[in-house]
Request: fold
Amino acid sequence: MEQGLSNIKSLTGNLALDTVVSGLLTLIVCYIAIRIVKAVLGKALGKASKLDTPVKNLITKAVTALLWAVTIIIVAGAFGINATSLVALLSVVGLALSMSVQGLLGNFFSGIMLLIGKPTVKNYSREPLRRVDMTFCTSYDASTEDAKKAILEAIAKDERILADPAPFVRLGAFKDSVVEYIVRVWCKNADYWDVHFDLNENVRESFAANGVAMSYEHINVHMIEK
Reply:
């Protein structure tokens, strides 16, 4: 029993009673301050309608963790512990942890930016109608009238392609070796891929039937004899 009391005295001998009381009072004051800051922060975040609940919770937890870290340093100083050494130790530990999980931290902060930024994401697979966007290329020998006529005939063959909104067929661009036509048609969501693939085949057949030569990017070399 006496040996146990001796050990306790040896551990607490360096701490005067007033130091202990001062440290405990400091801890209580810091705890009350943390509660007040959290309450004020909670009201402020409650008014921030643009922030989602996960973002608000994340901010609250981050601020709370920071306040407790500061509290540990302050209370340690009140107990007579060298706060400078403690801060240095915490900094080294924090740096080591951040380097070991830097990839995870990068993904974490990317997730925060996504939650805050709220990028516009639309799930087209849930829409009743979808637009099929396609591009077809012909040679410069084919006239615009013939090319558009052939594409429209191919579109008319597919009953799944809607008349309203009306199909869109226009000359899109003059490329180096081809003329590009932009095609946009609408169909039911469930028919999207079937319309896409069948339109490829139908346009190819319609081009052949109308004498429209399909083409691709290429280089023509002209040899001139002297």
Notes: Residues 1-13 have pLDDT under 50 and may be disordered. The beta strands are 129-138, 168-174, 179-188. The first strand starts at residue 129 and ends at 138. Residues 82 and 97 are 23 Å apart (CA to CA).
